[in-house]
Amino acid sequence: MALIVKKFGGSSVATTEKIKAVARRVLDGMKPEDKVVVVVSAMGDTTDDLIELARGIDKNPYHYAREMDMLLTTGEQVSIALLAMAFCSMGHKAISLTGAMVGMGTNSVHTKGRIVGIEPKRVEEALNEGNIVVVAGFQGADSFGDPVTLGRGGSDTSAVALAGALAADSCEIFTDVDGIYSADPRLVQGARKMQEITYDEMLEMARLGAGVMQPRSVEMGKHFGIPIHVRSTFTEKTGTMIREAYTMEEKDFEIRGLAHDDKVAKLAVMGVPNQPGVAHSLFSALADANVSVDMIVQSVRNIEHNVTDMVFTVAVDDLETAREIVEDVKKKLNAVSVLVEENVAKVSIVGVGMLGNPGIAARMFGALQKADVNIDIISTSEISISCLITKDKLKEAANAIHDEFFPRD
């Protein structure tokens, strides 16, 4: 007997025909004694459509974060009910449950919630009664009982967290690609599918823009020690395993993969007083509004006026909130101006192989030079290097860097 958690993304359940195909696939792969939990996202572009509806009321509806969560959590309720009906129509008991119903407890940070605990008693009871349990991903509830969403890709986190709480034997993430690639194959020619990748490398790639997995879901997998199998909904091929360490000869590499993010914006606060506490004033205000900041650079001090410039990036979804906060801080600090640039993108390389391997950064920068791509900002971690460039150069940059580290045959 095995307890298995399977997650299907929005493209996998985009139509009623696809929902029925998912139900058939799950049933075909089940052994009589298996217990199965299926976590699903909203159908197709439903979440985007709901956001557009909200923008018809206010151009920045995330000002009303709680109400956005009330709206967005309805998308998954449609898909879980339909999938449960599909299982029942095929002769198998099934029940649909929202995030709140499965005991998915979150903090109260609406639209960007974090899971603080899971009490899956109702899931266990339903499984013991012979049901396939169909769970709404992307959502939970705070201590007040209010719905809270987990951010883009949050269904991945729901699935891995449930697998951990249930001590599941495996967690499978079904998507519209057949695994994790060395780069986005829609952008980069010659991208290669990986057989396996470590939690740390996958976490870094996800954090830097690889859209296959949400970073928090990888954190959950590492925390619970659950291998995650990322595979295609539409084929039977083996996908990519995310686990603690390599079991094959895939560890002999310098760079594991390339990630990109074209949904970022750059803000520059010009003429900030060069004195203690200024950075804290700016970034604590952003943190209080739950705005994540990346790629922070402080310029060389202007000796004559004792001022400096502070440059950083945020996600496009947070831009309007960040802009308002920065404008307010600018007045308090008597800074000169605030500049915003949206035509930017981040391209990054990731791999534990760069540790103690000199010359990796030089090769990346050389590849960008050959592609005539200018670098605006550079940031590094132990296992990654990121460059901020103009968005219109992203394709050339990604292909040039990938060709440098993954030469085509």
TrEMBL record:
Which Gene Ontology cellular component terms are annotated? cytosol
Annotated ACT domain ranges read 267-352
Q: Which InterPro entries match?
A: AceGlu_kinase-like_sf, ACT-like_dom_sf, ACT_Aspartokinase, ACT_dom, AKii-LysC-BS, Asp/Glu/Uridylate_kinase, Asp_kin_monofn, Asp_kinase
One GO MF term: aspartate kinase activity
Give the source's domain of life in one word: Bacteria
What function does the entry list? Catalyzes the phosphorylation of the beta-carboxyl group of aspartic acid with ATP to yield 4-phospho-L-aspartate, which is involved in the branched biosynthetic pathway leading to the biosynthesis of amino acids threonine, isoleucine and methionine.
The identity of this protein, by name, is Aspartokinase
Species this chain originates from: Selenomonas sputigena (strain ATCC 35185 / DSM 20758 / CCUG 44933 / VPI D19B-28)
Phylogenetic lineage: Bacteria, Bacillati, Bacillota, Negativicutes, Selenomonadales
